[in-house]
Amino acid sequence: MRRQHESYRFTKLGVAMLSVMLLLLSLALPVQGAEGKGDTTPSGSPLSSLGTIIDTYVAARQRTTAAVSVVVIKDGQTVFDKAYGFADIERQVAADTDTVFEWGSTTKLLVWTSVMQLAEQGKLDLETDIREYLPQGFLKKLKYEKPVTLLNLMNHNAGWQDRITDLYYFAEEDIPELGEALQTFEPRQVYQPGTVVAYSNFGAALAAYIVELQSGEPFYTYVKQHIFEVVGMDNTSIHPAQQDNPAIAQRRDNIQGYTISLKLIKKNRGYMGIYPAGSAMGTAEDAAKFLAALMPAAGSSSPLFQSQAALKEMLSPSLNYEGTAIPRIAHGFFEINHTLPALEHGGNTAAFSSKFTLDPASGFGMIVLTNQANEWEYTTGLTDKVFGEYKPEAYSGDMPESSEVEGQYLSARRGVHGFTKILGYLNGEKITAINNRTYSANGLPFKQIAPYMYAPVHQSGLEYFIHDHGAVTKKSTVYNDAFPVSGLTAHSVTISLTLLGIAALFTIVALISGLAGFIFRRIKRQTKAASEFYKYHLWMNAAGLFLIVNNVILGYRMINYTTYSSIRIHFIGNLLYVLLAAGYIVLLLMWLRRTQSCKKGKIMYVLSGVSALIFSAIIAGWDLFY
User: Fold this and answer.
1) Hey, how many other C-beta atoms are within 10 angstroms of the C-beta on 434?
2) Residues 54-69: pLDDT tens digits?
3) Do residues 373 and 351 lie in contact, with contact meaning Cβ atoms separated by under 8 Å?
4) Are 117 and 305 in contact (CB under 8 A)?
5) Reported confidence tier of residue 595, pLDDT bands at 50, 70, 90
6) pTM for the predicted model, two decimal places
7) Helices marked H in 121-170 — which ranges?
8) Number of Cα atoms under 13 Å in the Cβ half of residue 532
């Protein structure tokens, strides 16, 4: 922190007396370096060296950096504010402190703050069934009778599966109202409320809709009036098309988005239907104002709440790791240990990444915004550098072997039903024991710090395993739970892809061979096919090629934020193929019973039937029909 200095005129005697007093004072106080405890970062570095630490960190990564904006606050004051790199590499537009970035999921912190504001006013109760706040019949896909509360939404354990379609729109005129967007987007409830943590965009947006209904104004209007204007966030917007702050929409045109390898993401601006889950954008300076309002300096109060009790409740634990006293979530803020316990939330959009981290106890907070998708060098690495990596206390008791937690794990945050189900398996986590106390999770090393509790070796975090008589039943991280899978289930993707490859290869070869035979017969002026079943065989393999192309397009559109209505045609195509395959197999069996055709021909036709069965089984097994 900068200190103001004043000049004084002293007599020689006064100077001598002052020198003696300073010497005695220095001997009486414990040595803390050049600065006191209040003038250090959570990692222990002096605040005076913070700029050098961040500058050095960024300089070492310039070749892989597009733009990054960093703001650090302490006791309500900004102690560091700087932007690096290029907002637009192609046009060489440098990033500065006025550059706007997309927040992504850190937008949810505005939702939870809004909920707590209304709870403080008595307009909402965190433990009341949310159906009491919603229009009758609003939620149509609930599976369990157990109530879903606002606390469940904050703790991400309301039980919904993940969904990616209808999340983004690419034309402003296509954006529906929040209530309509939620009903279109509503996922299935697949877990009993309160039992499984599965990070949910839908849950956060639903909480915002409840705020909208209870306040009587659109959520973006509520946030502008009760958060942005209160703390002076003039350079931030939350409306999906920035209608609450049109100037931000114009400034958004000055920044592009990139991959972590600096490849331009051409479609890097979308409009989020359930926008409270991730549509905020603005400057890092503005984001820091929000963070500072959550950590008022000693002797002052937060302008966001009528009393400090509501703020204190919001930043206190609302969910622990199962069976422990270790905090996991604080009313939507995620608990994570650095050198000191801190609260955080990360965010990602199609082309931006963010991380908000705060330690209310020390009044220290940090904002990191980048224009690179799935970025971690700054959002995780720089945050760890400033806040310090978690150093757990040494555990002296017995600990189980790391081999006990080996295996394949599926995240609870996935599509449990429907055509996106396969993505959960493709993104599964494989844990392999390195030694008795260490394992590798998809290549990242974790060390056991207490029984069934592991921390990553090179960054902050925690993984906790729930077990029953030595058998792991669930793995928990701060954001999600995961479940072990074994046997054929663990290898289902490999088996499916192998069979798919074999069937696809045969289909293509058979189709090429059949077409070559057809052309050859035309050249030789042969009008009769090898057998009467030949045309069915040829058409079945042509349908197989169509199926492959259809699902390649489906897969591409699946990972590019499409709408469900636009891909329904692909499901119809898959269902038609299954019906065609069933018809082919029936005709094949009838033909085989009465034919005396050559053995070679029979084998080809039967293999076409086997390929059709494989394709149909994959469609059915991976829910590629809805």
Assistant:
1) 12
2) 999 999 999 999 999 9
3) yes
4) yes
5) confident
6) 0.89
7) 150-154
8) 9
